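1st attempt posting a full record on here, be nice pls
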Amino acid sequence: MTGLLVLAAAVGIFEGSGDVGTVAHAGSAQYDSAARTYTVAGSGENMWFAADAFHFVWKKVSGDVTLTADVRILGQGGDPHRKAVLMIRQSLDADSAYADAAVHGDGLASLQTREAKGAATHEIQASVAGPARVRISKRGAWFYMSVAGEGGELRPAGGWMKAAIDGTFYVGIGVCAHSKDAVERAVFSNVEVAGHGGQEAPRLWSTVETVTVASTDRRAVLTTEGSVRGPNWSPDGTTVVFSDRGRLWRVAVTGGPAEAVETGPGLICTPEHGFSPDGKMLAFTAVVRGQGTDQIYVMPAAGGNPRRVTTKGPSWWSGWSPDGKTLIYTGSRKHRDGVFTIPAAGGEETLLIPGATDAEYSPDGRYIYFDSPRGEGTVRRARADGRGAERVISGEMGNFFPHVSPDGEWLAFLSVLPQTADVLVRVMSLGDGQIRVMGILGSGTLEAPCWSPDSKRLAFVSHQEF
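the predicted structure (as C-alpha cells):
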C-alpha cells in the first residue's frame, strides 16, 4: 500500500488518521471514550533515513505546542526498534520534516528529527529507559523531549533539536512496526495537546551529551538544572568529568547520578580541566575562595590534595603535552592574553604564542592548535615551539575551542552561526580538510578535551532555557 489513507471520522481529539509512506498492512486507530485511551496499530519498515512508513493519528495546529501522553507498547517479541511516537510533522509526505519523541520496543526513548524535507533523520537518545509518560515540545524551530516514570514528574530528557516546521502543521501519535511484514500496537492514554504560554522566568537546563562521529547520533548522559560546562572524557572511557557550581563532578558515560570529585577545601573550579596522558593525574583551574586569581592545579585522577603549579595569574589550563611533562594554558598578563607552557612538576612559565588562547597539543606533539586571538573566531596551528603559525579553520562563522582526537585524525571545535548565534559542534578531517556538523545547539560548551579514548565519540554540553 502506498500513500496516505485518511479516515473521514475524527479519532478522539484528533481530526483523522492514516498510513504515511509505503506499508504492507493497513494500520488502524481506536478511541475508547470511557478510558480516554487510543489504541494504534501500525505496520511500516522504518521511520528513519529520508522517508517514513507508519500509522499516524493527527490534528492540524500552528504556533508553539506541547503533546503529552502515557505510552505503552503492547505485546512481546517484536522488533526491538518498533516505535510508539508523539510527533510534530510539517506534512503527511513520507519525507516530511518532523520531530518526535519515540519510545522503542526495547525501552529506548529518544528525540528524533528530520531537519528538512528529504533530509536524513537524527536522534538524541535519553539516558532514561522505558518512560511511562512522554512529552514533545515545540518552541519556534526548536524541539525537546520530557519523560517521567510511573507517577513521576516530567523532566527534560536532554538536548534540543531543530527542524523546519512552521505555519500550519500536524501533531499526533503514531506506531511503526520496524518490519514491513508485521503490525505492532501501542496504547496512548491521558493525551494532551496544548499551546505554550511561556514562563515569566524560564529556567536554564544543561545536558552532558555524547555524539558518535560516524552517525552523528547523540545520547544524553546527564540533564540537570543550572549551567554545566567543560565535559572531559576519562582515559578509560567509562566516565565524563564536568564542572558545575564551582566543583568538578564525574558521571558514567552510560548515565546515572553524578558524584563530586574531591579537589580540596576552599577551591572554586572553572570548566578547564583534563587528565594526563597516562590517566594518573588531573589538571584543573581554580581560584581560592575570596582571594587571588585563577591558577592551575594538579592532583591524582581519583581526587585528593591538589598541588598548585602556576604562580602567575589568571591562568586557565588547556592541555598536557603527550609525554605528560608539560602543561599548556592561556594566561592573561598585563591585560593581554597568550599561550604559555610550564613544567607539570612546577617551575618558570614560558610565553609560547602571544595573543593566542585555548591551545592544545596534537597527540604526536608536533603541533599546537589554538584560537587566535580571543574573539576572532579563527583556529590556527603552530609547531610545538610556537613558531610557523598557519590558519586551519576560518570563514564567516566564529570557530573556537579546537580539540584533536587521540588518533590524530580529527579536529573537533565549536562554531557560531552569525545570523542566529546558534552553536554548532563540528569536526574536521585533518587528512582532507572535510568538515561535518555533529549537532546544532541553541548554545553549548566544549572547553575541555572532549574526545573518547577510541576517537569515535565526542562529549559536549548543550544548554536550554524553558
